[in-house]
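hey all, quick one before standup. I had two proteins in the batch that finished overnight and I want to keep them in one place so we stop losing track of which output belongs to which input. First protein below, input sequence then structure tokens straight from the run.
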Amino acid sequence: MTSLLDRAVRLLSQRDHSEAELRRKLGKQPGGQRAFSQDFLAADFSTPDISSAELEQVIDYCRQKDWLNDNRFASVYVSGRSKKGYGEQKIRMELMQKGLDREIIDAAFAEADIDQSAQAQAVAWKKFGQPLPTERLEKIKVQRFLLSRGFSIAEIQSIYINL
């Protein structure tokens, strides 16, 4: 268990992880899918299979020490991705892929209290300048860009209404 706990601590010391993410990473063999030399690949670094009981002990221990907290992870993730200019839809999708429940995601967004329309406008201004283009083809480029960033149609339309 100590080697598994060491791996968990190392992973959690680098950045926060969701519980599902940590389970997935701990369940894999060390080394992952990196490209290595033939000498390295020939060496036997195999580890015995990890039992589910051992994995549960490590996960429980990390939760007890508050090193693993899905609510905190979701809040930090929402805040960080929002500051990088991503919309709610994209962030929600990413959090669901990381194994978080919808309730935890909803709570993280409620706690963050982000004005998505203002954020969409700021992202559009940063990419396309001020004032935003009003010609049809250029406007479509702006809309497509904002959609790819995870903003909703209503949020995108609101930036053109406010012009």
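OK second protein, same deal, sequence then tokens:
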Amino acid sequence: MQNFQTLLAEHDHLDELALTLVRIAERAEPDAAKALHARAAFSASLDDHLGRETAFLDGELHEGKVPEFSDAVVKFHSDFNDLAADWGHYLRLWDLAAADADWPRFCGETTAIMARLRTRINEENNLLYPLALRYSRIRLRMPA
């Protein structure tokens, strides 16, 4: 069973990685290689987190023991579909050559997608995870 404390820690780490990437994108001096390295770190951590989170949330969908929580999970999955598609498009579009060729546009799109991902993380922290905790779908922390 997942725990609230670990999920929040993972989100905090993702937020730090996102902010690192945004700070690179906000610099006047282009550094596409550094930006893509930071993005790769964020993407790898996101993939790891989503793997664990998806297993926990999909289990809830199959069990459906708590309709209010199951409905929230369905809504979160649905809301995430567009963001996930846009994230995939962004990753495919902006390789090193493209980011070097159009640094200002890369920076704008990076800042925008990171803002959306950070908003999603915040929504999970403030809406989904507390609901999961309320209905005993996750623990508060790891057992001692």
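Flagging for whoever picks this up: Helices lie at 4-26, 32-63, 67-93, 96-101, 103-134. The mean pLDDT is 90.
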